[in-house]
Amino acid sequence: MSALHALTAREIARRVRAKELSAVDVARAFLDRAKALDPSLKVFLCLTAEAALEQARRVDEKIARGEAPGPLAGVPVAVKDNLCVTGIKTTCASKILENFTANYDATVIEKLRAAGAVFIGKTNLDEFAMGSSTENSAYFTTRNPWDPTRVPGGSSGGSAAAVAARLAPVSLGSDTGGSIRQPAALCGVVGLKPTYGRVSRFGLVAFASSLDQIGPFSTDVADAALLLQAMSGHDPKDSTSAPVPVPDFSKALTRGVKGLRVGLPKEYFIDGMDPVVEKAVRDAVKTLEGLGAQVVEISLPHTDAGLSVYYILAPSEASANLARFDGVRYGHRSTKAENLLQQYEFSRDEGFGPEVKRRIMLGTYALSSGYYDAFYLKAQKVRTLIKRDFDKAFESVDVIATPTTPTAAFKAGEKSSDPLQMYLSDVFTISCNLAGVPGLSLPCGFTKDNLPVGLQLLGKPFDEETLLAAAAAYEKATDWVRTPPVAA
Amino acid sequence: MSLTEKDVNHVARLARLALTPEERTTYRGQLGRILEHIQALAKYDVANVPPTSHVVPLSNVWRGDKAAPFANPESILANAPDREDVYFKVKKVIE
Question: What pTM value is reported for the model?
């Protein structure tokens, strides 16, 4: 039993289906582990033991009755706290939603539930997913399992740390500008942002609706494929979810990279980048070459515009999406207000943290009369140029390889006083969201301080298969799937 | 790029944020610096480039306007900061 936490999600599901393990025992083991380690790691905003054990019991009963329990039978899943799970608090790590209980399941939650998954708790994030370190959480900062003085990345830092420390075999995050891939890189796990439209956003508390996607964290590539399979598909409840067929992702895992054209964009190897990160990524590309891939130098000329476009469009969309938090139907309501306008203004001022207010202000400004054309419309047009860069690149390559982040995990407090410095840590992950393409980060080395480094692979729209194929081939040829000392 | 105090007050009102004077000063400086960085976009000539609001080529996504029962309406009201019967209660809207 002691090594249960070292198992992959697919091995857990296999053993549960084969009745070698009960789903209840698996849930208990992970809940106990989370209870023991969470006080030092600060991953969970809440553990949902009761609901998890009830779900696990139902999986065991199904198996006892001889019914198919689903591909994720008994697999514990940690869920980023901006996804709605019926009857469970959904705070977005914000004071404004401190007492909000979700009354419906997000579509991904509904799908995973049907697949036999067991939700063990809600993980910490930067408030409303705005940030790169979890330091913007209104509650606490999650520790990086590789070094507790460092951040796990963000915004899905809790979900990344949960998997790195094996408090859950897999978890869910959301990615608007890198919020899955950046923490995956900093915590040394696999993180996948699907193509925009691949996974329904229904029940994800919206940050920037044209950029947000939900995706999995896992210890290896095959588990990412397993989760993606269960999450994907068109959903009538999300008008932006794409009516495209979902392939069998597991089939791609053994495809290999022979003849695969890997693009290396020169704009992603910049000054100020940690040389250790650069070397790890270049070595990874050599490894792919050694496995039969063909490496092609490419250019994504509008890369340097990505950050500016992002920090106009994402806050603009956020300022509109977050208008709903007004203290009327749910969420914090100020007790100081004397009229309705004050009720809005005080409730929002008291409920939102500094980064959320900063972005609402930025977005409101960019959308305001007189500035709309100069900022918002201009950014949407430059977004077209960024998208065209990718369209053109993918005429000559099948996948693009880059570093996920310019450096390994940084110290807590190192960037929190300078918003612009913090924004720059997302410089390699942002264009992917703007172009809507899928992206995956997986471990490709360690610094001398034993901090993980991430390799980012970007693919053509709706071609997650090629990403998974390249990542699986690389993973098989290398030895970077490691566990931090805390998870040993 | 610098923001005036008036700009900040105007935007805070539009955003329905009752910021303290200290917050207004902080945001004025920070937003100015962020906007300055964003000015980098000025160098791109996009006169003939269409805007991208959205990357998936979908348009006119329709569904039937059909009512469906919600399992537990009380759970919605239970989240209300203030309620009376089945209504959300707020400050007087019309003076």
Answer: 0.97
